[in-house]
Amino acid sequence: MDKKTIALLGISVLILVGILYFVGIDKVIEALKMANLHLIALAIGVQIFTYFLYTLRWKVLNNVAGIDVGFKKLLPMVLVGLAVNNITPSGRGGGEPVRAYLLYRENEEYTFDETFAAVVADRALDTFPFVVLAAVTIASMALFFDFDTGLLIVMVLSVIVILALLFALIYMCINLDFGKRVEGWIIGLVRRFYKKDTESLENTIHDSIVGFQHTMRVLMSDKKGLAYGLILSFLIWIFEILRVYIVFLAFGAKVNPIVVGEVFIVACLVGMIPLLPGGLGSIDILMIALYSAAGVPRSISATATFIERLISFWMATLIGMAILPYYGSSVLDKISFSGSPEEIDEVNKIESNE
């Protein structure tokens, strides 16, 4: 983690501490004393099971793409990816290049373009059910709740942007001419900002886009694999919402599971705005405010949100960061999520010789 990331995490933690202080530390402690530890343990178990579902979906897509890497090797990569997503203010996308790189380094028989395409397809499958749930949530809140118009507009625009990016990605893989236009646009930017000889870099961009398109077309042609992955994606989101609901049950809160799901989806939308790592602070404030508006006492809302974030955010972050040194965190710093395949190859050779 660089100094900027550490500073942002520090700000996020201070915001969370400020929230707890505002609610009342004594009230939070009283709420913790009455918590059902068995239900909290169950929520932790649900979260761990979700990690396995994430890994299973990725393995299904890897198999379709012809990438044969075992479940046991993929699971720690998923956890590292989740951790990097959490510590980078990148709209929950910072860990995807890391996953692709780790998968590529696991077996150099596959190119980085192939592994990155499989990761992007995995993220796209995760995005589709989220967009469906977000659309239903926004419509429900607009019709049945006295919801802030400004926030409603931001959420609608967020969903539109996510959909536009998703469709552009799919269309680029279906329509080769569109892919060429994207390639030309990227090369134009390179020529504008990169003053040195760009021929080698332009060839790299061309090969990367062609390889990416090929792997994505292979993935999209397997209807059975995509259907299986889509089912797993909906299951993952259901278990994510179930975890939050169980945490509130642990504190004796009587809250409708539909309301829990709606608040969770809204919080995820806000968390995708790349301001603070993992949406820390902004997500917490929003969840507490919405649950309190739904009739849950503020002390219970704050405490349940605090525990839920410990399980969903901090547990994945700490586990992933503990695993990261096994792969060599210094190498991940060197590729900085943006290196070309040739640069990644070079870094990989350096790491192998150390």
Question: In words, what does this structure look like?
Answer:
With about 350 residues, the protein is mostly helical. The protein contains 15 helices and no strands. The two termini are about 20 Å apart. Residues about 335-340 have low confidence and may be disordered.
Q: Quick one: overall form?
A: globular
Cα separation of the termini: 21 Å
Structural class: mainly alpha
From the alpha carbons, calculate the radius of gyration and give it in angstroms.
Answer: 21 Å
Quick summary:
With 354 residues, this protein is mainly α. The protein has 15 helices and no strands.
Main features:
354 residues; 15 helices; mainly alpha; 0% strand
Strand-helix topology:
Blueprint: H1 3-23, H2 25-33, H3 37-64, H4 71-87, H5 95-106, H6 112-144, H7 149-174, H8 176-193, H9 199-221, H10 223-250, H11 257-271, H12 282-293, H13 298-327, H14 329-335, H15 341-353
Helix pairs in contact: 1-13, 2-13, 3-4, 3-6, 3-10, 3-13, 4-5, 4-13, 5-6, 6-7, 6-9, 6-10, 6-11, 7-8, 7-9, 8-9, 10-11, 10-13, 11-12, 12-13
